[in-house]
Write a structure and sequence with these properties.
Length: 507
């Protein structure tokens, strides 16, 4: 992070979005956005000033006065248009995402598409924003509820899904009648900003969606701001815990989706080829930079003999820049991420795990400066080892062994995280025992990354989540609205007065 020199060759600057306009920040603090495959500086992003953050919130607060009264159908039509625009610009969005984040182009399109699904759901959210009515709860008395928007809401999003996760947040908040201030990751905000351009093009009015950029100071400003009513966060456990505690103390609603250590149990009766393919894809896709990646496979019984086959499967994956055809594993997002992942691989060796496949320093012709780490596999991994206890967030798969399914379940339930888990088996009895006894929020049965579609809610648990409501699906309606209960009685001229009633009951 540095001051923006005036003498350097012109590099594009990422703008702020305030009151429907993309404006140049007056900040003196900027960060380079770097292509992780080449180290080319793509643009510079400002760390918004306190005054700019206040202006974004003020714009959202003003816009809320009219947006909250906008008809549900009118809001829905904006998101119908928005999903159409995202589809029409899918290739451009994926290219921007790949350049700044490193994902392969097909994976980048998947990133956008999973967000698009939530936009589609937002277009029909009025069906879920219904109140309840009880007629004649007492003599001539009716009681009903309405779900009303909160006001200004905010979102803080991570680098690993710069399209999908912003689209988890602001469409749902805005569709339910709130206004929004978004702080995307400062590492790769360009695709997020393009999505916001399309949102304005779709008809979102000025002030309803605002964007600020920054680091810790911006996060704290969002947590502390008196006019922000709710915050949605996705990111690391350290930052998420800070956001939850600070914002909750400030009286805000908060939902935090945080770190993970996702285990997959492999039973000896599993379909071997399908299971190996699933493990390799879930562990090494997106260079392992997914909060739902499979980072630990627990091989039960004879499945422990599959390690050589898994290594061969991992070796078959192509490493390279995300723009190259046929690439399976792109670069890590930054030099810092590269140093952290390679450092943890070294710790794994030092802690006594067996390094079956070493992905450090792969040869990637034409991209020698890229942050590349290839698929890496450790076996003999146990709790207490750094590579087991920490979320590596790289293309590293840890293999543990178990004699029985019960032993494997006990291992998973002993881990503090509860984001996602899976089992690979052809036994219905084993699958049912697993889904009943496992203490993890999102469960896959022969599905390695069980992220639910938007009709359901993202339901991570334990140390992977703070707050009791998920970021989309039915749960998010409760998060972004407040329930108001109305009890009413109407009198006409024929009503006989019953006199003064000094009791609490309705008669």
């Amino acid at each position: 992070m540095s001051a923006l020199p005036q003498s350097e060759p012109a590099v594009p600057t990422v703008k702020l979005l305030i009151d429907g306009k993309f404006v140049e920040s007056r900040s003196t603090e900027w960060r380079d956005i770097v292509n992780p495959a080449t180290q080319e500086v793509l643009a510079r992003v400002p760390f918004a000033t306190p005054q700019e953050i206040d202006a974004a919130v003020a714009s959202a607060k003003t816009a809320f006065k009219t947006w909250r009264k906008t008809a549900i159908g009118a809001r829905a039509r904006i998101f119908l248009k928005y999903q159409q625009l995202i589809r029409e610009n899918m290739a451009e969005l994926a290219a921007i995402l790949t350049a700044e984040q490193g994902k392969t182009l097909p994976d980048a399109e998947g990133d956008v598409f999973r967000g698009l699904e939530v936009v589609e759901h937002a277009a029909s959210i009025g069906n879920l924003q219904l109140g309840e009515l009880a007629n004649n709860v007492a003599s001539g008395v009716d009681t009903y509820t309405v779900l009303q928007p909160l006001g200004v809401c905010a979102g803080i999003t991570p680098f690993n899904f710069p399209a999908m996760i912003p689209l988890w947040m602001f469409p749902m908040a805005i569709a339910t009648g709130n206004t929004f201030v978004l702080k995307p990751s400062e590492q790769d905000p360009m695709v997020t900003m393009r999505l916001c351009e399309l949102a304005l093009q779709a008809g979102i009015p000025p002030g309803v969606l605002n964007v600020v950029h920054g680091g810790e100071a911006a996060v704290n400003a969002i947590c502390d701001h008196k006019d922000i009513k709710a915050i949605s966060f996705v990111g690391s456990t350290k930052v998420g815990t800070h956001v939850y505690n600070r914002a909750s103390l400030a009286g805000k609603r908060v939902q935090c989706m945080m770190g993970a250590k996702n285990h997959a149990i492999v039973m000896p009766d599993a379909n071997k080829e399908q299971t190996l393919n699933a493990l390799a894809g879930a562990a090494f896709g997106a260079a392992g930079q997914r909060c739902m990646a499979v980072s630990v496979a627990v091989l039960v019984g004879e499945a422990r003999n599959w390690i050589p086959d898994l290594v061969e499967k991992a070796k078959s994956l192509k490493i390279g820049a995300g723009t190259e055809k046929g690439v399976d594993v792109g670069p890590l997002v930054s030099c810092a991420a590269y140093e952290r992942v390679t450092g943890l691989i070294e710790r794994g060796v030092a802690d006594g795990a067996t390094l079956d496949l070493d992905g450090r320093k792969p040869t990637v012709p034409g991209f020698e400066k890229g942050n590349f780490v290839g698929p890496t596999i450790f076996s003999g991994v146990k709790p207490g080892m750094s590579i087991y206890d920490q979320e590596i967030f790289g293309p590293v798969l840890c293999l543990a062994g178990a004699e029985t399914i019960d032993e494997a379940i006990e291992l998973i339930n002993s881990n503090p995280n509860g984001n996602g888990t899976a089992i690979f088996t052809q036994s219905g009895a084993a699958a049912r025992r697993f889904q009943e006894d496992i203490d993890v929020g999102q469960v896959g049965i022969n599905v390695p990354i069980p992220v639910p579609v938007p009709l359901f809610s993202f339901s991570g648990s334990r140390a992977s989540k703070l707050g009791d409501l998920g970021p989309y699906g039915k749960q998010v309606i409760l998060f972004y609205t407040q329930t108001k209960t109305i009890t009413e009685r109407w009198f006409d001229d024929s009503t006989v007065s019953q006199g003064v009633n000094t009791t609490i009951s309705l008669k």
